[in-house]
Amino acid sequence: MIILSEIPTTPPKDVNEDKLKDKTDKLAKRLGELQKVMFAEQKHSALVIFQGMDASGKDGAVKHVFKECHAQGIQVHSFKKPTEEEFAHDFLWRVHKQVPRKGMIQIFNRSHYEDILIQRVHGWIDDERAAKRMNAINAFEELLAFDNHTVVFKFYLHISYDQQEKELNERINEPDKNWKHNPGDWKEREQWDDYMRYYEYAINNSSIPWTIVPVDERWYRNYIVVKTMVDQLEMLNMQYPPLSTV
Q: pTM score, two decimals?
């Protein structure tokens, strides 16, 4: 049972920042190599889900972790408020269209989990409907994993309440971050306890496990995400296809 308040949002005290940054750079290069083999082999794909509170560093994770990956084999999609057409379908309809084909890495900056998080926090769906959606999400992700050989990575970016306030204030006070400022983020912050409760529900009821990533120090976030991905992708034993003689 995961209780987020019991998990640190900062790195262990004995971690050396400079050494870990060096390891992160090496792992990012290895991730780039693995991505190229995946693209060539066309047997597997990867879905990378980033969820977290506002200012938890989802954009930064994408920027730093995948910096050595080739643009041809990677895509990013952000899920915003559903359109009128999307509202007219089931909640996974718009998501299934974005899943990766074999050979590709698809990144979700926010995801289908929004449909059991923000909708639940604001009372737009009740507990019974959220539970049924959770079952549908598990079935959906298992379909990708077991039927289409998609490795599903799920990262909860674990930021502290105090650090979030600092990050949100930087969006107001630093000109190069003004474009990120959204007054609505402060409104959502008022619902922090509800968000934590429903994140815990999603994490603890998932068939495919989550990785809880401490993000108060962004360099540690980058390390945990890239190491998790490299470790799992190495297990696929992917190979470049041999020269065709046909």
A: 0.95
What is the reported pLDDT for 187? 87
- Fold observed for domain 15-234: Rossmann fold (3.40.50)
Question: Which helix (H) or strand (E) covers residue 61, if one does?
Answer: helix 58-65
Q: What is the mean pLDDT of each run of 10 residues along the chain (246 residues)?
A: 96 95 98 97 97 95 96 93 92 96 97 95 95 98 95 98 94 90 89 96 97 98 98 97 80
Angle at the Cα of 187 (from 181 to 192), degrees rounded to 5? 110
- DSSP 8-state assignment for residue 245: -
Please compute Rg for the chain using Cα positions. Answer: 19
The residues spanned by each domain of the chain are 15-234
Closest CA to 110 of 165, 52, 162: 52
- Give which of 72, 64, 83 is closest to 25, Cα–Cα: 64
Q: Which of 62, 63, 53 has its CA nearest to residue 163? A: 53
**What pLDDT score does 246 carry?**
67
**Model pLDDT, residue 81:** 85
Beta strands (DSSP E) in the chain are: 45-52, 74-78, 105-109, 150-158, 211-214
CA distance 119 to 147: 29
Specify burial of residue 246 (Cβ count, 10 A radius: 0-12, 13-18, 19+): exposed
108 and 77 Cβ atoms separated by less than 8 Å: yes
